[in-house]
Structures are given as structure tokens and as C-alpha cells.
Write a structure and sequence with these properties.
This protein is α+β, with helices and mostly antiparallel strands and 377 residues long. 26% of the residues lie in helices and 19% in strands. The strands form four sheets. Strands 1, 2, 3, 4, 5, 6, 7, 8, 9 and 10 form a ten-stranded antiparallel beta sheet that branches. A two-stranded antiparallel sheet has the order 11-14. Strands 12-13 form a two-stranded antiparallel sheet. The structure holds heme C (7 copies).
């Protein structure tokens, strides 16, 4: 959604997950598995099949926004709920209107008009939704997006306010280069990209079980023989085998963006608050080898995101003392807080609104927030 050059980031995504030698042994098939790329000749079965045997993971996963990271026209939740949206910006007027099984995105300056069906809606709309359109053989990222908090359209994040498009095509949106399309679909869908090629015919929208665990046909076949419980190689990728560093930076970071990727993009300032793997490395709490501060310590991807701030306290207290002298030599735990005993994240993980996002992101640079400080890093 941010209009950055993602090329550099894309180049870094490939050599993933092969770094932990202990994980390599039994998993030759999964060695180069990356959550944004389908391995060559991959055979997928779909989340419904996984759910037959892994009910527990499947039940909660459906309520995590990752499952709905991309929608196709017949499913459009937001565009059905808001069947008639409009916005006037400068001389251009935008509308997104529901017609039968489609939503039509139109832009007009009064003389010229372009109307195209919304081909894909990106985002579960916690913050909003951006549309990808097809016009004259090209992909466009819509110039306006839907935002949940205003329940309406505004300029897509990253489009500089106050600029007036020179042509009706420019007003429609941004022409996406092939690397942009691969990046977008690679992060918001399953099996959309393989061997660096976009394969929309094989794609499943959203982050399904197999986006994170790899293609599952061989695993399911093995499970049906009943030998899975004792098998040395279960023919499925279990991220639990990754080191704490690889889990946060290379695996979740493949989509949420690692320290490496964000540094390479040179993205300083408030716009980088949405890149949690990057932000967390600047916290004094962060230890690349400690599982207690990795992404899965606080977030279970098989569950909906918890918005109950107190539910994170136990995660902090896995490392921090609750009471006592601040330097308790007998304890191996980190310091206690003199100010608060509960709801730790409400003070130490402040929220910031990226301009134009209409959404407050949670800063993962856990710290003592100094009064009047400017946004660090
Ligand atoms: C026919 C039943 C069945 C189906 C369908 C199935 N699994 Fe499994 N899966 C199992 C069994 C049995 C185990 C071993 C569980 C155990 O020992 O607790 C397992 C283990 C796993 C593990 C852990 C592997 C390890 O090495 O630790 C993962 C991850 C997994 N399954 C994911 C999936 C995904 C993703 C799908 C859909 C593509 C899926 N499973 C479909 C039966 C199934
Ligand atoms: C294949 C790409 C991909 C991978 C890998 C990935 N994510 Fe995500 N994640 C996304 C996208 C895209 C969204 C935004 C979904 C939306 O709102 O449309 C998201 C959203 C989330 C959310 C917010 C969910 C909500 O309901 O608001 C959490 C939490 C999260 N991811 C955690 C993780 C963790 C932890 C990992 C690693 C175990 C991980 N993600 C790996 C792509 C990915
Ligand atoms: C490197 C992976 C990656 C790429 C590339 C990417 N996204 Fe995302 N996107 C994410 C993740 C992770 C989130 C959730 C965290 C956040 O909001 O930043 C997200 C969030 C979003 C959201 C907000 C979802 C919500 O629930 O509010 C929209 C809309 C979106 N992306 C659209 C796009 C579009 C359009 C493109 C291509 C122009 C794109 N993204 C490219 C990973 C990616
Ligand atoms: C965003 C990535 C992501 C998605 C999507 C995802 N998983 Fe997982 N899964 C993980 C991670 C990470 C682990 C490692 C355990 C942990 O640290 O939570 C895991 C572990 C597992 C395990 C092993 C559990 C154990 O106790 O060892 C099973 C089985 C599993 N997942 C099944 C599924 C199924 C079925 C789905 C779809 C309904 C699914 N997963 C979707 C990331 C994901
Ligand atoms: C120590 C706990 C902790 C760790 C570790 C952690 N998070 Fe979070 N995360 C939170 C809290 C607290 C929230 C805010 C939840 C709420 O109230 O909505 C959050 C929110 C999010 C969101 C929703 C968007 C937002 O800005 O609110 C995403 C996506 C996310 N985290 C991804 C990650 C990823 C990826 C990692 C690994 C780098 C990670 N988190 C590590 C505590 C943690
Ligand atoms: C992996 C263990 C670990 C976890 C989990 C952890 N911390 Fe820390 N934290 C540390 C260490 C180590 C330090 C640095 C030494 C110290 O202050 O005792 C630290 C430092 C801090 C500081 C002082 C930072 C500064 O700016 O000087 C604060 C505040 C803090 N942590 C809050 C939290 C909160 C809130 C959570 C949960 C959301 C949390 N920590 C989770 C280990 C952890
Ligand atoms: C009401 C806001 C608030 C809450 C809630 C809160 N803190 Fe703090 N915390 C502060 C402030 C302000 C400071 C800096 C002044 C001080 O040391 O008391 C601080 C300091 C700290 C420090 C640094 C201590 C030192 O001596 O350097 C740590 C570690 C910490 N908090 C962890 C936590 C943990 C863990 C929790 C939850 C159990 C928590 N905080 C809850 C506001 C809060």
C-alpha cells in the first residue's frame, strides 16, 4: 500500500528459512520454503482439508485478519456492506458501486470517465481496503481506498495529498510494475507466486494454512496411512523448528518486514511503525535468541488478534519482575516497573497514526516513552 520501491525487499525474501541447520535435516522438501512463494510443482489441498484433522487451529484462524487479507468480487464483505461509496478530490470524482456480483470503480473529471470492475480487494479492512484494478492490460493500485474508521473513501496511503493527476489514467491509480504485483499478491495470498512468476490461476486469496506451512498434499496422503504420528518426516513445515531470530525476522518478517528489509528501504520516521519485526529490534527487551520476545510469544496466528491489553501482561512478566528491589541480584529477571503493575503495553507500546492511514498502529519498540520525545528510528 505504501508506494515504495519494494524491489530491494523482494530480493531479500528468497534465501529464507535455510539458515537453521537443525531444521534442515528431516525437512529437505521444506528447506527453501518461503511463505511468500510456492515451491515448484507444489500441490495444495486448501484449509478446509486441514481443518478435518486440525480443528483447533482452524477454528481460531478464520477470525484472524490474515485469512481475509485478499478478497475476490463475489466475497467482498466491505463493498457489500457499503454498496455506494464516493469521494471528490480536486477535479476528480470517484465512486465504487455494487452492481450484481461486481463492484464498479469509476473516476471522472466531468468529461472523461474510466469505469472498471474491482478485480481484487486487498486487506481485511482493520485499517482499510485498497483495490487492484485491470485497465488496458495493466494492473493499477487504486488511487483511493476504503478506510474503516471513516467508513468511506480517501486517498490511498502513500499518495501525496495535494497532488492533482494530469490524466484520467493517473487519476484511476498507480500503474503497478510486475515486481509490485508479485509483492502484493505474494504477501496477501497463498501460492500466488512461484519461481518469481505471478500465477493468479493457482492462487488462493488470503494467508491460508498452507501459506505458512507449505503445500500439504503429501502430508495429508501420509496422514491417511495412519503413520504420521511416528513418521520422522511429516512432509509439512512446522515453523516451531525455527530459531527465535528466523521466526520473527525471516518468517513473519517475510511479510511484516524484517529489520534488514526496512533498513534497506531507508524508511525512517513514523511510516515504519507498521513493520513490527523492524521496530522490535530497537527495544531493550529484544534478544534475537530469546523465544519469549519473538512474534509467536505474543501472537498465535491460529487465533484472532487479542485487543485486551491485560492479556499481554503475562508475556512481559515472563521476563520482568513484578515487585521488589529494582536490582534484585538473586533474580535473573529484568527490572520491575515502579509505575504500573498491569496493562504494561498501554504505556510501553504507544500507538501512532501514520498520516493518511486513519489507523493507530502499535509501536513494537517496547520502551519507556519519554515525555515530548520525537518518534525514534
Ligand atoms: C488426515 C488428517 C490430517 C490432515 C488432513 C492434515 N493433518 Fe497435519 N497432522 C496430522 C497428524 C496426525 C499429525 C501429527 C500430530 C501429532 O502427533 O500430534 C499432524 C501434524 C501436523 C503438523 C506438525 C508437524 C510437525 O512436524 O511437528 C503441522 C504443522 C500440520 N500437521 C499442518 C497441517 C496442514 C497445514 C494441513 C492441511 C494442508 C494438515 N496438517 C492436514 C493429521 C492431518
Ligand atoms: C504470507 C505473508 C504473511 C506471513 C508469513 C505472516 N503474516 Fe501476519 N499478516 C499478513 C497480512 C497481509 C496481514 C494483514 C491482514 C489484513 O488485515 O488484511 C497480517 C496481519 C497480522 C496480524 C493482525 C491480525 C488481525 O486480526 O488484526 C497479526 C497479529 C499477524 N499478522 C501476526 C503474524 C505472525 C506472528 C506471523 C508469523 C508467525 C505472521 N503474521 C506471518 C501477512 C503475513
Ligand atoms: C511484504 C509484504 C506485503 C506487501 C508487498 C504488501 N502488503 Fe499489504 N500488508 C502486509 C501486512 C503484513 C499487513 C498488515 C500490517 C499492516 O497493516 O501494515 C498489510 C496490510 C495491508 C492493508 C490493510 C489491511 C487491513 O486490514 O486494514 C492493505 C489495504 C494492504 N496491505 C494492501 C496492499 C496492497 C494493495 C499492496 C500492493 C500494492 C500490498 N498491500 C503489498 C504485507 C504486505
Ligand atoms: C501466519 C502463519 C500461520 C498460519 C496461517 C497457520 N499457521 Fe499453523 N503454525 C504457525 C506457527 C508459527 C506454528 C508454530 C507453533 C507456534 O509457535 O505457535 C504453527 C504450528 C502449527 C501446528 C503444530 C502445532 C503444535 O502444537 O506443534 C499445526 C498442527 C498447525 N500449525 C496447523 C495449522 C492449520 C491447520 C492452519 C490453518 C487453519 C494453520 N496452522 C495456519 C503458523 C501459522
Ligand atoms: C511482547 C508482546 C508482543 C510481541 C513480542 C509482538 N507483539 Fe505484535 N502486538 C502486541 C500488542 C500488545 C498489540 C496491540 C494489540 C491490540 O490491542 O490491538 C500488537 C499488535 C500487532 C499487530 C496489529 C497491528 C497493530 O499495529 O496494532 C500486528 C500485525 C502485530 N502485532 C504483529 C507482530 C509481529 C509480526 C511480531 C514479531 C516481530 C509481533 N507482533 C511481536 C504485542 C506484541
Ligand atoms: C525476553 C524477555 C523480555 C520480555 C518478553 C519483555 N522484556 Fe522488557 N526488557 C527486557 C530486558 C532484558 C530489558 C533491559 C534490562 C532491564 O531493563 O532490566 C528490558 C527493558 C524494558 C524496559 C525499559 C526500557 C527503556 O527504555 O529503558 C521497559 C519499559 C520494558 N522492558 C517493558 C516491557 C514490557 C511492557 C513488556 C511486554 C509488552 C516487556 N518489557 C517484555 C526483557 C524483556
Ligand atoms: C501507567 C503507565 C505504566 C504502566 C501501566 C506500566 N508502566 Fe512501566 N514504566 C512507566 C514509566 C512512566 C516508567 C519510567 C519511570 C519509572 O521508572 O517508573 C516505567 C518504567 C518501566 C521499566 C524500567 C524500570 C527501570 O528501573 O529502568 C520497566 C522494565 C517497566 N516499566 C516495565 C513495565 C511492566 C512489565 C509493566 C506491566 C506489569 C509496566 N511497566 C506497566 C509507566 C508504566
Amino acid at each position: 500500500m505504501l508506494q515504495l520501491s519494494l524491489l530491494a525487499a523482494a530480493l531479500l525474501l528468497l534465501p529464507m528459512l535455510a539458515r537453521d541447520p537443525s531444521a534442515e535435516s528431516a525437512r529437505s522438501q521444506n528447506k527453501l520454503f518461503s511463505p511468500t512463494q510456492a515451491p515448484p510443482n507444489a500441490r495444495y489441498v486448501g484449509s478446509k482439508t486441514c481443518a478435518n484433522c486440525h480443528e483447533q487451529q482452524a477454528a481460531g484462524h478464520n477470525a484472524n485478519a490474515m485469512t481475509l487479507a485478499l478478497e475476490l468480487p463475489p466475497e467482498y464483505g466491505v463493498l457489500r456492506q457499503y454498496p455506494s461509496l464516493s469521494l471528490k478530490r480536486g477535479k476528480y470524482r470517484y465512486t465504487v458501486e455494487r452492481k450484481g456480483n461486481e463492484s464498479i470503480y469509476s473516476v471522472t473529471d466531468g468529461q472523461q470517465t474510466i469505469s472498471v470492475p474491482v478485480a481484487w480487494a486487498f486487506g481485511a479492512s482493520k485499517m482499510g481496503q485498497t483495490f487492484v484494478l485491470r485497465h488496458q492490460g495493466q494492473f493499477y493500485e487504486s488511487r483511493v481506498s476504503f478506510y474503516q474508521s471513516i467508513k468511506g473513501l480517501d486517498l490511498t496511503m502513500g499518495v501525496p495529498a495535494g497532488t492533482e493527476p494530469r490524466t484520467i489514467e493517473e487519476a484511476l491509480g498507480r500503474v503497478m510494475q510486475s515486481v509490485d504485483t508479485k509483492d502484493c499478491f505474494g504477501c496477501h495470498a497463498t501460492a500466488a507466486v512461484s519461481e518469481a512468476k505471478l500465477q493468479l490461476d493457482k492462487m488462493t486469496p488470503g494467508i491460508t494454512c498452507e501459506a505458512c506451512h507449505g503445500p500439504g498434499a503429501d502430508h495429508v496422503a501420509l496422514a491417511k496411512t495412519g503413520k504420521l504420528k511416528t513418521a520422522a518426516d511429516r512432509q509439512i513445515f512446522n515453523p516451531d523448528s525455527l530459531s527465535a531470530y528466523d521466526l520473527s525476522q525471516q518468517y513473519c518478517g517475510a511479510c511484516h518486514r524484517s529489520w534488514e528489509q526496512v533498513s534497506l528501504m531507508g524508511l525512517r520516521g513514523i511510516g515504519n511503525v507498521r513493520f513490527q519485526p523492524y521496530r522490535i529490534t530497537y527495544s531493550p527487551c529484544y534478544d534475537p535468541e530469546d523465544r519469549r520476545i519473538s512474534c509467536t510469544a505474543c501472537h498465535n496466528p491460529h487465533q484472532p488478534l487479542s485487543h485486551d491489553v491485560a492479556s499481554y501482561d503475562a508475556k512481559c512478566l515472563a521476563c520482568h519482575q513484578t515487585t521488589g528491589a529494582v536490582t534484585n541480584a538473586a533474580s535473573t529477571k529484568a527490572k520491575a516497573c515502579k509505575t504500573g503493575k498491569a496493562n504494561c503495553a498501554s504505556c510501553h507500546m504507544p500507538r501512532y497514526e501514520i498520516p493518511g492511514s486513519h489507523f493507530e498502529f502499535t509501536d513494537h519498540m517496547i520502551r519507556v516513552v519519554k515525555p515530548g520525545e520525537s518518534y525514534p528510528n
